[in-house]
Amino acid sequence: MAQQPSSAALSPNASASERASRLRLMVFDVDGVFTDGSLFFTAEGDAMKSFNSLDGHGVKMLQSVGVQTAIITRRKSGIVAARAKELGITHLYQGVEDKTVALTELLAATGIAASECGYMGDDWPDLAVMRRCGFAAAPANAHPEVIQRVYWVAEARGGHGAVREVCDAILRAQHRYDDLLAAVLGA
Asked: 10 Å Cβ neighbour count for 49?
């Protein structure tokens, strides 16, 4: 069971770890976060994306301790819908122009406060939604304006383990990482 966040208001000076310890919902952008941001198109115009399996396992581990997961992305893709389904991400918002509107709908649907929500993004369209969340994170190769405004930056690039890194950081902040590892090791 995930550690329940304090009902006390989050201090503006709270550390990234303190912010992550309160999370009940983690939201991700796709292009540049779950992927490296490259867009591949066939001659017929079909798009292709590449996902990292480590990232997927990180999402599954968050879910296993009760942290809900979601995707909010500007593009609309059957590939993303398939990946979300495979990972058990039931909150999927695609083709979203204003991510703050989608976040408002998501928070209302889940009953989770913005202070208990995290968001990982990489570019300017993510900035407004990140400002509303209690925890904001970015991959190492995010735009510099994003990196300056988040609480936590991965060492890995988008599509190359950044999602897994943030999932591990959240699990550590919630004191669940060691328990999950011990279970795998049979300890």
From this structure: 19
